[in-house]
Amino acid sequence: TVRPFDDVKAEVEEKLKAGKAAEMARKRGEELLGRLKQGESLQSLADAEALTVVSSGLVGRNDRALPPALLQRLFRMLRPTGDGIQYDGTVLANGDYAIIALGAVKDGVLGQDDKEKENALKNLQDRSRGTAYFNHFIENQRKNAEIVITRQEQQ
After folding, report:
1. pLDDT tens for the 155 residues of the chain, in order
2. CB 60: neighbour CB atoms within 10 A?
3. Closest CA to 29 of 73, 61, 66, 65
4. Counting Cβ atoms within 10 Å, is residue 70 exposed (0-12), middle (13-18) or buried (19+)?
5. From residue 115, how far is each of 62, 108, 122 by CA, in Å?
6. Cα 107 from Cα 91, distance rounded (Å)
7. Distance (Å, rounded) from C-alpha 102 to C-alpha 69?
8. Which of 60, 67, 109, 125 has a C-alpha 20 to 30 A away from that of 142?
9. Hey, is 151 helix, strand or coil?
10. What pLDDT, on a 0 to 100 scale, did the predictor assign at position 155?
11. What are phi and psi of 112, to 5 degrees?
12. What is the pTM of this model?
């Protein structure tokens, strides 16, 4: 159904404004990210640009306090070396641009349940690999030999 222009005008204007604002935020965010990567400190950049630095501390993959787009980018970043900080950025679902400063990575620890699951997965992989090797072997044998397979009905 096509709605009259006057009914959708305000809606279209809002979407256009939001799209333009998101594009401006992305460009500005990328400029600021470039400055960080060139060595400017996060705090001095935030002070100069009147921005707020939000520290999240340790974050898990399934953390619900942070936006999903930010978590995705965060867990794809390279591990910082030494006392260095890795910087990256991402566009959030609402059009904002978030700059991420990753200072450290803490490796997870497997609990007893996790170790059992890991062992079960390794066994499953081994069985799957063994089955694949066996099937490949049989296929090669059939290609390289003249084998006649007959089936007799059981009586």
Report:
1. 888 888 888 989 999 999 999 999 999 999 999 999 999 999 999 999 999 899 988 898 888 899 999 999 999 999 998 888 999 999 999 999 999 999 999 887 777 777 888 888 899 999 999 999 999 998 888 888 876 777 765 44
2. 12
3. 73
4. buried
5. 20, 12, 10
6. 26
7. 15
8. 125
9. coil
10. 47
11. -60, -40
12. 0.63
Burial label, 64 (beta-carbon count in 10 A; 0-12, 13-18, 19+): exposed
- Give yes or no for a contact between 70 and 93, defined as CB atoms under 8 angstroms apart: no
CB 80 within 8 A of CB 105: yes
Q: Which residue has the tokens 């942070």?
A: 66
Token digits of residue 126: 């081994």
Residues 6+ apart with CB under 8 A from 58: 106
Which three-class secondary structure string do you get for 55-67?
A: CCCCCCCCCCCCC
Q: State the helix-helix crossing angle for 42-49 and 5-37, rounded to 10 degrees.
A: 140
Residue in this structure with the two tokens 């700059």, named with its chain if needed:
99
Which ranges constitute the DSSP H helices of 38-151?
42-49, 68-74, 112-144
Cα gap 27→23, rounded to integer Å: 6
